[in-house]
Every structure is written in structure tokens, then in C-alpha cells.
Specification:
about 220 residues, alpha+beta, Nuclear Transport Factor 2, Chain: A, four-stranded mixed sheet, 10 strands, about 25% strand, disordered N terminus
Length: about 220
């Protein structure tokens, strides 16, 4: 059994080692706006949406050492997530992370890719990691992401997007192949500051970048 390497993300100032996914990849992600790190004290964020089971008669079974998840509830986009406003951002961002969590459990990337721009290098690396570990008798246990705080920063960037400060955590991940534990990753135990860049295009929000801010404490 091996310890899975952490994913590497970059900012304009320096390379920052991140635990969003278990892959050793050097990325050149777009930089979020610089600034002092706000207080990390978590403010609860409501669940992004009410989850709906794919089949009313099916029973959700989370992934375990015995096998992959079954009958995983499909995240539903909240109505407010379509609004171009602070309220819309606060609904969309948790939903986006919830949909990544869904992909970790199922390997189904269609839903998350539909709300993510191909420009997002870090996102693409995460998707590649998920894809490689959810095929050929491989599966992932854990990895659920939880947004705990979103700063009220509804200010448009020079690129036309919005970049609020957010804090999120991630459960530890275990990687299985043919019933054997192949590796583990610690996840992100304490809520950590990130800056997503989100653009409103054709009546819907899309994640364009996700990075640690310049000057953020490790």
C-alpha cells in the first residue's frame, strides 16, 4: 500500500501543494486575486440541494473496502443557482462541489463537466484522477467535499468573472483496485481558503478556475 501523492496547483507567486485529488501533476492554473487571508472560522453553508435517488426503490450504499458505491443520489441544481447574483453564487458553488463528490463516488463526470469550463486546469486534473480510478474494478472511498464558508464578495474581475473567498474541506480518500487497497490520501481536514473563478455564461454559472490565493498560509 502506498501513500497517494498530492495534487500540485500553482499561483503566479509560487507553487502550492494541494490535497484536492490524489495525483502528482504540475499545473499552470489561472491566478485568483491577491489579498489578505480572511478568518477561517467556518460559517455553515446549507446543503447545495436536496438529493434525489436515481430510483425511488433503490437504497444508497456508500463505497467501502468491499466495493464501489451503489445507487448514489444525484445532486440537483438549486433554483437559485441560476441567478446572476451573490445569492446565485452561494447556491452554485456548494452545488459544484457536491457534484464533484458525486463524481468521486460514481465516476460519472457528465454532470460536473457541464458546469465546468474546459479552461480550468485544476478541475481537469481532478477529473482525470477520478476517471482513472473508477474503471476496471477500481473505486474510490471517501473524498466528499464540504463548503463551509463563502465570503460576500460579489465583485466582477477584470476577466468578467467573480472570485469570492471560500473555505472547504475534504474527507480522506482510499483507492481500491480489484479489492485491494492501493493507496490513501489525507484529504483536507480543516476548512481551507481557496478562490474559485466563476463566470456567468448563457444564463448559467461555470467554474473557470480554482486556486489558492497569493500569500495564503499553508
Amino acid at each position: 500500500m502506498s501513500q497517494q501523492p498530492t495534487l500540485i496547483g500553482t499561483t503566479r507567486a509560487r507553487t502550492t501543494f494541494l490535497l484536492l485529488a490524489a495525483a502528482a501533476l504540475a499545473l499552470s492554473a489561472c491566478t485568483g486575486p491577491a489579498g489578505a487571508e480572511p478568518s477561517p472560522s467556518p460559517t455553515p453553508v446549507a446543503s447545495a440541494s436536496a438529493r434525489q435517488s436515481p430510483d425511488a426503490t433503490s437504497t444508497y450504499k456508500p463505497a467501502s473496502e468491499e466495493g464501489p458505491a451503489e445507487n448514489v443520489p444525484v445532486p440537483e441544481m438549486p433554483k437559485d443557482a441560476s441567478l446572476k447574483s451573490q445569492q446565485g453564487l452561494e447556491a452554485f458553488i456548494p452545488y459544484w462541489f457536491e457534484t464533484v463528490s458525486y463524481a468521486y463516488e460514481t465516476g460519472d463526470l457528465e454532470k460536473i463537466k457541464s458546469i465546468t469550463s474546459p479552461e480550468c486546469a485544476l478541475c481537469n486534473a481532478v477529473f482525470e484522477d477520478i476517471s482513472s480510478w473508477t474503471v476496471e474494478e477500481r473505486w474510490i472511498v471517501g473524498g466528499k467535499l464540504q463548503v463551509t464558508k463563502i465570503e460576500d464578495r460579489y465583485v466582477q474581475t477584470t476577466s468578467g468573472g467573480y472570485a469570492p473567498y471560500i473555505f472547504f474541506s475534504q474527507e480522506p480518500l482510499s483507492y481500491y483496485s480489484s479489492g485491494s487497497l492501493e493507496g490513501e490520501s489525507d484529504g483536507i481536514a480543516e476548512p481551507t481558503l481557496w478562490i474559485p473563478e466563476v463566470h456567468y455564461r448563457a444564463g448559467a454559472w461555470h467554474m473557470v478556475d480554482l486556486a489558492r490565493p497569493e500569500g495564503a498560509k499553508e
